[in-house]
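ugh finaly. both done.
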Amino acid sequence: MLSLSDLPTLNAALNGTSAILLSLGYYFIRQKEIEAHKRCMLAAVTTSTLFLISYLTYHLPGRFGSVHFMRTGWIRVVYFSILTSHTILAVVIVPLVLIALSRAWKAQFDRHRRIARWTFPLWLYVSLTGVIIYWMLYHQ
């Protein structure tokens, strides 16, 4: 059974899984393997949704809240640069994913492709930087 203190590790695992699924989905669409692409992208949406639920559960008022980055020097600047870009893009990516998903669902593939070109790299960045932030907070 998971405890609340296990959620940051779960969150990092979900982010890492999303990054792998996104990369596989990109590979499959480049190979014109539409069904494999679809499965990967739906799985990425699922893991990202589970991440969001877990993240919000962990950060609910009265729970754990924030973990402070205690290191000093140049690494602090690096950490907060990554954290800031991650946080901003994490907010931006949600509607982009929903729009891309909606367009694919409606078989509006030209419109889906146009937004997916922006959504994919941003979503991948958010997933990967989520793992990096976890690593910097809990393993340094």
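ok and the 2nd:
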Amino acid sequence: MALPFLLNADASKPWQLGFQTPATPTMEGIIRFHHDLMFLLILICFFVGYLMFRCIHLFGEEKNPVAVQIVHGSVIEVVWTLIPAFILMAVAVPSFALLYSSDELIEPALTLKVVGHQWYWS
């Protein structure tokens, strides 16, 4: 009799990676947002790693024994400041939407008051 219920019950498993099956649309949005952020994070990590490899490869001491003195790079400084700012704004919009959707106030069917004392619960 309880077998169909137990087969469909979703619970965490030992050494589980990832999320459980969502029960609400808000949790589905959170999982989708997590996956989108992880994809963006991987892209950024590969891009930064590629740039670091290219800098080490192209500007090593054996290829350039005399360092070039560059005093100002205003354009590159503006670019590497604005691009992360735009990325953060693009991430903030869906995160605020999820934050506001999770702030729904639903009238509870049951209210439970629990008071924690120093040595016991009441």
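summary for the 2nd one i guess: The chain has three helices and no strands.
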